[in-house]
Amino acid sequence: MVNRRFELYQYRQIVFQMRQGQSDRQIAKSGLMGRTKLADFRETARQVGWLDSSTALPEDGEIAEKLQYKGPKPSASLVLAFKDLVESWLAKGIQSTTIYRALQRNHDFKGSYSSVRRFAQQWEQRKPKEATVILDFAPGEAVQVDFGAGPKVFNRMTGKCETTWFFVMTLAWSRHQYAEMVFDQKVETWLECHRHAFEFFVGIPKRIIIDNLKSAISRACYHDPQVQRSYGELAEGYGFIIAPCPPHDPKKKGRVESGVKYIKRSFLPLRTFRDIYDANRQLMEWIMGEAGNRTHGTTYEKPLSLFAETERDLLKPLPDIPVQISFWAKAKVHGNCHVQYEKCRYSAPFRHVGQETWMRITPTTVTIYLQHVLIAIHPRKRKPGSRSTVDEHMPPDAIAYKMRDPQWCLQQAELVGPSCRKVIEYLFSDRVIEHLNAAQGIIGLKKKYGEKRLEAACDRALQHDAITYRSVKLILERGLDQIRESSHDVSPLQPSIYNGGSRFCRDTRSLLIN
Fold first, then answer.
1. Is residue 136 assigned to a domain?
2. How buried is residue 441: exposed, middle or buried, by Cβ count under 10 Å (0-12/13-18/19+)?
3. Which of 281, 314, 347 is the last residue in one of the domains?
4. Distance in angstroms (rounded) separating the CA atoms of residues 276 and 282
5. Which pLDDT does position 307 carry in this prediction?
6. Phi-psi category of residue 479: left, alpha or beta, with phi > 0 → left and psi -120 to 50 → alpha
7. Which domain holds residue 354?
């Protein structure tokens, strides 16, 4: 009785015509069913009471139950012989065309590509589908933010073509969007792009829906995500709420995902850019022109019109005083009493060497904190290798060495006396060795022995041509500076000179007498 070539709605039409008194011959002429099958079906309909005009027409489910209807019988597929193999390939995401060629090449498959495609479609339909819900947002309630990969663009700073990224912020209600092309995804860039977007919209949304990128979320977690400190400070300044998506669930921000794809497919193709400034100029013209005035496929309205007519007035106004963009970074104080950020060094007090600090970086300043206590402040450096050092941050001995340069030594020697000045000048005249330590040491003897004795010691060292730190110190230690030197004095610093006669030596005056 069962004829699986007929659909259920056709059986309902036949029952209706039978109730109208039409014969099997008349119904057969309409092409619904042959007379033999009609006779069998009429008998079944009469037995179950479907021909009674006083009752409602049977529902599809009732017809299927009485006739044991299972739908059209599919034909046997040649792919069934390789069912397990093909299903394993499909589970790995291999395309149908690749599977078809592999079956032909390795398994002498005689079927057509259509059979492989139909098998893949049926396999896909058997997979459990995930149900979703469309998220609704009120005007001005939320924006969705994301980065997307951009083209390579010339960078004037480096003189090279470098990879770029699209920063995209899409208003969830109107679908109006702001986009900007940048060279990196650093925290500083992320924050600056937010400011540019708020100024573009002339307002601030209540919520910002983001992905778990490192510039915004320091630790991704479904229940307790940790917001990056710099981004949290920006949210406080502008007064918006950060709403991170659950990890690995980008569908929660599908509108900005679509916006990124729209830029890649509609804006980028067949365009050339001189540099990133030219690229952003063209991008803004495209947003305010083609993109903003298109009829959106979901709202069936123009995003720019919806924004201008409704959503703009429902955004929070910008603060009267611009929010200062700053970002935080952790840094350890190295042995040279400096912390480092972006290849630039900033000094911190020497007693904090080895400790971890927080750096608050703004476009103009760098402040260093230790457990929320300010310990240093510096002007922001940009050139790699630059250093900002405060002398008070260095150890005392290092400061003393740094401050006591040759000029300082000469000035201090001048205060002691001319002999001391000559000794220091002599030391600095050496073209082979720098005698800064020796000069500093000689000046330092003044503290223990006084200026008078140091001057006398330097004078004695000059007389004996023993101009070294050790000689001056030895003179002072032995008190030789206080002894009046005579012609028969023997200096302990030099070997004695023999002044006596000789047994075999004649007087030089007798040599001149004829």
1. no
2. middle
3. 314
4. 10
5. 95
6. left
7. 327-399
